[in-house]
Amino acid sequence: DDTLVSNTGSDYLYGGSGNDTLIYGGNSNVYTALQGQAGNDTYIVDKALLTSSSSIHILDNAAEENILQLKSVSSGDISLKQSDSLIIISFNDSASTIRFGEG
User: Fold this and answer.
1) Contact 79, 55 (CB under 8 A)
2) A Gene Ontology MF term for this entry (predicted)?
3) What's the CA gap between 60 and 58, in Å, rounded?
4) What 3-state class would DSSP assign to 76?
5) Closest CA to 60 of 29, 19, 89
6) How many whole angstroms separate alpha carbon 100 and alpha carbon 54?
7) How many domains are contained in the chain?
8) CB 9 within 8 A of CB 31
9) What is the pTM of this model?
């Protein structure tokens, strides 16, 4: 089991097997990828750390139970859209997005 936190800049976090926790730690308008793989993984994103155009892609095609935990967010702050196996979360007050799934 791993706990990984992204940093400023473009990051790709890879948890591998096990029950991993991958945390978005903020960046400067660049791409961040979080990949947990096998195991029951938890992904944590705090809206307060997003910039005006943050792009986060959570890649996890494992069949286990995974959790996406959004902090500093109310239901009126986001819009959800599904495109095939990909769920796209958009924030209503910025161009930031979270893409959850493959694609």
Assistant:
1) no
2) calcium ion binding
3) 6
4) helix
5) 19
6) 14
7) 1
8) no
9) 0.88
